[in-house]
Structure formats: C-alpha cells, structure tokens
Amino acid sequence: MALDVIRAGMKVAAVEGAGLGLGGFVTLLPDLGILAAIAMRTIQKLSLIYGFEFNTDDEMAELWLAAASAAGVDISRELIEKGVVNRFVPRVIQAVAVQASTEMVERWASRVIPVVSSIAGGSLNYYFIRAWGERAMRHFREKHLRLRAANAWLIEEKMEHGGS
C-alpha cells in the first residue's frame, strides 16, 4: 500500500514536471512549488498508512521531522518538545529547503531547451518523489515498529505483574 502511494506520487510528479518543463526556466518556480506540495502530500499519506495522524502542533512537528528525514536532513527527536514547535518548524523548513535546492540544481541545467527540459523535468520529478517517498516510508516504518515493540513490552510486563 505504501509503495502504491509512492508510485502514484511519482506519476503525478512526472506528469507535472513534463508539463511545466516545456516552459523552461520560466516555469521552474511553479514547478518547485507544486513538486513540494506533491512531496508533502505523499509524506502525509504515508504517515496515515503507518497510523500517524497530524492534528496537533506536536504531530505537525513530527510530520516536518519526517519531511526532514526524507530530505536526508538529520534532526534529532529531542528537538520536538511542546514549547519548541514554533521555532523548530521554520528550522526544519530551512534545512529541507537547503537540501531540496541542492537536489534541484540538477534540474536547472535541463531547463534551457524546452523539449529536453520537459523530458528531464518529468524524469527528475519522478525520481525525486521516489527518493523522498522511500525515505519517508522508512522513517514511518521504523517509528511504527518501535511503537509496536514498546507496546508489546508493556503488555508483557503487565501480564508478568498481575495483568493490571
């Protein structure tokens, strides 16, 4: 199911990149904005598959942590505390933007010739979402497995000590 979400995001990103790639440099900024939205939506869907909803500020910070993880930015879990969320999210956005812009530099060179940039834009968007989706999937899977192990341990402890 998670792989289906990633594949769907890859297809949407490829079509979007190919379409906006025809405009060359003129459409680079809208392409990056739409690609970022596709990436975040893919990450949100993956989070739901693994049982993580994002409604509170703390949960939204966790989503940004997943986005940072998907971008290859290493941010420790200790940064997410109740009073830190408002300062934390802008830092994560900045770190993700730096990482994403590094990955996007490759795209700029292909924007010179519209037909080539259309093919390149579609291909790069496709692989960009694939890489981010796979990283986010690993993040949520590892988190899910840690929670399951912790819950299993708690249940085992409860049963050993009388069940209440």
Share of residues in strands? under 5%
Count of individual beta strands? 0
Overall body shape: elongated
Q: Rg to the nearest angstrom?
A: 19 Å
Helix and strand succession?
Answer: HHHHH
Q: What structural category characterises the helix and strand content?
A: mainly alpha
Q: Could you tell me the mean pLDDT?
A: 77
Which regions have little confidence, pLDDT < 50, spanning 5+ residues?
none
How far apart the termini lie comes to 36 Å
Q: How many helical stretches?
A: 5
Largest sheet: none
**Proportion of helical residues:** over 70%
How many separate structural domains? 1
Task: Summarize the helices and strands and which ones pair or pack.
Blueprint: H1 2-21, H2 28-49, H3 57-70, H4 85-109, H5 114-160
Describe the structure in your own words:
By secondary structure, the chain is mainly alpha-helical. It has one domain. It is 78% helix and 0% strand. The longest helix is centred in the last third of the chain and has 47 residues, at 114-160. It starts with a helix and ends with a helix. The mean pLDDT is 77.
Short description:
This protein has 164 residues and is mainly α. Helix content is 78%, strand content 0%.
Annotation keywords:
78% helix; single chain; 164 residues; 0% strand; mainly alpha
